[in-house]
Amino acid sequence: MRFLGFIALVLFGCFVQEVEVLVPEGYEGTVVIIYGENEDQNSQPISNQINVYTIPSDGVISSKVKPSNGFKRFSLFSYNAAGVKSELPIIYSHGDIDPESSQIVGYNPRVGGKVERFSEDGDLQKSYPTYLDLLVGRMSQIDSLSKRRDDFIFEKVYNR
What we know:
This protein is 21% helix and 45% strand. The protein has helices at residues 2-15, 139-158; strands at residues 16-24, 29-35, 43-47, 50-54, 60-63, 70-79, 85-88, 90-91, 104-112, 115-118, 124-128, 131-138. The termini are far apart.
């Protein structure tokens, strides 16, 4: 029985990640983490078993880390010039927080799967990476940020 528990622990550990996303204080907009690419200098994978991503001012970071099948823990923090972190709540629906709240939140993190485009002959023409994206802002801004989210992702992930 211990052996099965060990196997489950190993398999579970291989497919889930602890992720910590750090955004500059005052950042509002879409955040994108592009997986399986050349690593950005602000990406610190597996720091104490946590993948830490310090998001630059343009909102996009690349990481060599491959995406997982899930998250054991997903945290969002803002950081100031002195490096002091403040945790921001992650919200999954409009009803989770007062829509008039001025608090900055992370909204609806989602993972976009790898996309490959093939020619009629079956040759691979282009491969697009897996990515994670989420919105960061006040609830009063989430709808307007959502409308620009897909254009931002298209520009930063698919149109590079």
